[in-house]
Amino acid sequence: MAEQGATKNRILDAAELLFAEHGFKETSLRAITTAASANLASVNYHYGDKKGLIRAVLSRYLELFIPAFKMELVALHQRDEFDMNDVFLCTKRPLLRLNSFKNNGTTIFMSLISHGYTDVQGHLRWFITTHYDDVIQLFIGAVRRAYPCLDPETLFWRLHFTLGASVFTMTSSTALCDIADSNFSNRVQTEDLINRLVPYLAAGVTAPIELRRV
To answer: Which long-range contacts (C-beta less than 8 Å, at least 24 apart) are formed by 134-141?
Structure first.
């Protein structure tokens, strides 16, 4: 049993690194089993198939991030007033917590989320919306309370633009921090990045809504 548990964890760790670096589509099960010193039968035994493995890899992060994010959102909704900055700051502590789980955990998590969209992993989006819809609705509800004039279509686009900016910033964090250090002699940490990113995202979501041309 101990050996099975060790094999299961090796597969997860190898898959996580390869998925984060190369994406879900470009990473084969053969590459994962080679890196994990395991065989295909082990993957099938523990995870069923590649989709099951993808969900298991992401779940390790979601199971830490989602409960913490939900707590922040519940506390926010109990306030009489808040703005869009407050909404996006709800992600700060849950994201930073991932770095305690694993070195560069925040970057790895955001990279996995990014590949979930760019690799057209419909099953992954289904998995997230099915298992965590209550938290998604809490977040959307907070956005709507902070800026009630957003119609559903505009909200859809702005939240996806927000996701794109967040993913790019966090997955490129190492390079961006190195550039900031070189150009401005300013050592930037993950927390600093989030603090700089939040006002930008808030301003984008609350930008004036242009009238559509007929």
So the answer is: 134/70, 135/66, 135/69, 135/70, 135/73, 138/70, 138/73, 138/74, 138/77, 139/69, 139/73, 139/87, 139/90, 141/77
CATH topology (fold) of 1-48: Arc Repressor Mutant, subunit A (1.10.10)
Give per-residue pLDDT as tens, 60-85: 999 999 999 999 999 999 999 999 99
* Secondary structure letter of residue 214 according to DSSP: -
Q: How many CA atoms lie within 13 A of 39 on its CB side?
A: 2
CATH number for the region 60-206 comes to: 1.10.357.10
pLDDT digits (tens, 9 = 90+) for 82-118: 999 999 999 999 999 999 999 999 999 999 988 887 7
